[in-house]
Amino acid sequence: MPKHTLLRPLSTTHMGGRLVLGVGALALTFSLAACDTGVDPRNPDTPSPSESAASESPSDDAESLDPVGKWTSPEAGDPFLEFAEDGSLEGSDGCNAIVTSWKVEGDEITIDSFMTTQKACAGVDTWLSKASAATIEGDVMKIMDSNGKVIGGLEKDDK
Hints:
Blueprint: H1 12-33, H2 49-55, E1 69-72, E2 80-83, E3 88-92, E4 97-105, E5 108-111, E6 133-137, E7 140-144, E8 150-156
Antiparallel strand pairs: 1-2, 1-8, 2-3, 3-4, 4-5, 5-6, 6-7, 7-8
């Protein structure tokens, strides 16, 4: 007759250890699922880009300073920003995606802070990922960083 191995029930010590591992794995999963909420970790009171777009569409000043449409650059990677009427903003620094919101404040376009991937792309200057504000002069949009320094320019895309 073949011998069968007798299975023993798990002791409570083993069951407790498995329970702790399961709870730990669940906690790790939830914490990773919360990554990239769009909230600036340095200022958690700032609404996420989707909340900003929903609650703060462009103001009445938008009529005098209208960025709506696509603004491009012929640089490597073809960086661009596309401003939508609802206050949302999408683009690329030529390597990494940009998704945020915008509003007009006085004579300046404020670009809400955003998170982006940080891929390294050979031969591409990712200056546009530092965009914080902009002004428009004719068909040229001057992009400024958070210090108010002009870091580059984009041209209105007529397409």
